Amino acid sequence: MSRRESRKASRRELRREALVTKKGKREFEEVVLAKPVVPQNQFQSELLDAIKTKQVVFTDAPAGCGKTFVITSTVIDALKSGKVEKIILSRPAVGMGNSLGLLPGGLREKFEPYLMPIVDVITQRYGKGFYECQVGNGNIEFVPLEYLRGRSFNDAIVIVDEFQNTTPDEAYSIMTRLGETSQMFCMGDTNQHDMRGESGLDWATDFIYRHKLFEFAALVDGESDDIVRSGFCKAIVKAMESEKS
Predict the structure, then answer these.
(1) I need a surface site. Which of 88, 105, 140, 186 has the fewest CB within 10 A?
(2) How does pLDDT run along the chain (245 residues), one tens digit per residue?
(3) Which residues, other chains included, contact 151 with Cβ-Cβ below 8 Å and sequence gap of 6+?
């Protein structure tokens, strides 16, 4: 190999996204991140600020406000850049019906379809190959809500989707799983509540407010005026709000 070819090979090696050992540790990498998230409204701006400054963030917003995009993009950037070692993806089983146990395959194959909004953001941001690599290395883990109990998370970020479908007891249990070096983002829409009784999202936000735990947690609410997905989506949500009023 000539000296020029050797230099080219070295550059190609450095441009690799990551070299991961069997133990899952990056030996070296040159990180190229996607474009930073630019907030499209006040809700997204407040959500971004909360993600950067608080250990726990609860967000209650209608579909189409961009909460999944903002949270997932920020979290996957942290994993890509090595700021965090692991991402835990979870959601309650409520709303899944009986289909979870009927799906073929292991836990990932059964659980992943219900977290596709998060998965879609990851693959759109860094590609299917990156996503498969991180799942294969255990850097992205799917954990059903009931499996979170008894576990402790350090150097990790936990994302819990559909948090409005947790019970107050489940919400409390989840909130006690965090170590000092972890964050948790709980997102939901209390207008799409599939449970009887008090929602865990309502309970958690009220609990944080009553005990003034704002040193650790932030509450970020969105409204139908914050919807950015499409004009049609915004019109549908507003029409539903008018029917319920």
Answers:
(1) 105
(2) 565 565 555 555 544 444 444 344 444 456 789 999 999 999 999 999 999 999 999 999 999 999 999 999 999 999 999 999 999 999 987 754 545 555 567 788 888 988 999 999 999 999 999 999 999 999 999 998 888 877 889 899 999 999 999 999 999 999 999 998 999 999 999 988 877 889 999 999 999 999 999 999 999 999 999 999 999 999 999 999 999 87
(3) 143, 177
Q: Which residues contact 243 (CB under 8 A, 6 or more apart)?
A: none
What the block records as the tokens of 216 is: 């650790």
Three-state secondary structure string covering the chain:
CCHHHHHHHHHHHHHCCCCECCCCCECCCCCCCCCCCCCCCHHHHHHHHHHHHCCEEEEECCCCCCHHHHHHHHHHHHHHCCCCCEEEEECCCCCCCCHHHHCCCCHHHHHHHHHHHHHHHHHHHHCHHHHHHHHHCCCEEECCHHHHCCCCECCEEEEECCHHHCCHHHHHHHHCCECCCCEEEEEECHHHCCCCCCCHHHHHHHHHHHCCCCCCEEEEECCHHHCCCCHHHHHHHHHHHHHHC
CA separation (Å) from 106 to 25, 63, 90, 141, 210? 25, 29, 16, 13, 41
Angle at 133 between CA 85 and CA 101, to 5 degrees: 95
| C-alpha distance from residue 8 to each of 1, 11, 14, 16 (Å) | 11, 5, 10, 13
Six-digit token pair at 196? 């009887």
